[in-house]
Amino acid sequence: MNNRKKVFVTREILPEGLEILRKNFDVDVWTEYAPPSKKIIKTRIKDADAILTMLSDKIDAEVINAAPKLKIIAQLAVGYDNIDLKTAKERGIYVTNTPDVLTDASADFSFAQMLAIARRVVEADKYVRAGKWEVAWHPSMMLGAPLRGTTLGIIGAGRIGQAMAKRGRGFDMNILYFNRSAKPEFEKECGAKRVDLDTLLKESDFVSIHVPLNDQTRSLINAEKLALMKKTAYLISNARGPVIEEKALYEALKNHQIAGAALDVFYTEPTPKDNPLLELDNIVVAPHISSANTATRARMSIMNAEDITAVLLGEKPKNIVVGNF
Ligand code: GLV
Ligand code: GLV
User: Fold this and answer.
1) Nearest CA residue ID for atom 1, ligand 1
2) How remote is the CA of residue 233 from the centroid of ligand 1, in Å?
3) What is the layout of strands, in order, in the sheet containing 26-29?
4) What are the tens digits of pLDDT across the range 6-49?
5) Cβ(291) – ligand 1 distance below 6 Å
6) What is the pLDDT of residues 213-244, one digit of tens each?
């Protein structure tokens, strides 16, 4: 009889992680590009000891309770708002994630999107390809906004928010931040100043969001908050879609109440093709790819695999979200 423990992996992760898992366990990988349905997940984890999940898999009580032997849910992301932590805790199931390794990747992407919207990088690319470049050079062609000497407001000064601020510092930006707790080290390192949310929104030229999604942050940026921003300011987010009220953002962009926005996350993902935001010129968008560089995704897969291995061999995992039962 085969008594190797079973691991269900909900997507084809990078091979580095799979190799580790295959050393000790029977590994069942969902190899289709599109995610497995809830029904499929429930069937595949019936006798699984571990599941490796993506942020787009809804791991609610119904799913968790379909797996009586489950010991660990390892999430290939830093965020875990898709997982019912309460049920996991009640069942004594570990939940782990992949912090730290994706901090730089994520901040790189936010910064790239910030530069892209400020300097109209995507619009310029489309312009040339569309054959609209008919005058060689003009002093007012595609004017954008400078970074140097402007103010970058960081909402949520955790690992990624701080990494974003550091990059802003490198571009000689002034840093404001809004965070539940003060971050004295960060203040020293980046000359960052802690302010309340309204002050940050009023004074920043670029506002970048880096909070997790929870009851306190859902709809944090609504019409009233957007109205506080400068007409020349930009909003950037690769946090989670529901932190911003998309309809309010649409109105603010359409009415040029703010200058522009850059989003890697949406209210629903994939965002509907007819999302009105996509009709606007003053926004750049991406399909939730902030942590997507090869080295980072490989390391994320290794972290999940090592935590699953630890738990199934009776040890403590490293990156605990739920544990210490
Ligand atoms: C990405 O959004 C993550 O949470 O890792
Ligand atoms: C621009 O191309 C310049 O030479 O200033």
Assistant:
1) 77
2) 25
3) 26-29, 6-9, 50-53, 72-75, 94-96, 320-322
4) 999 999 999 999 999 999 999 999 999 999 999 999 999 999 99
5) yes
6) 999 999 999 999 999 999 999 999 999 999 99
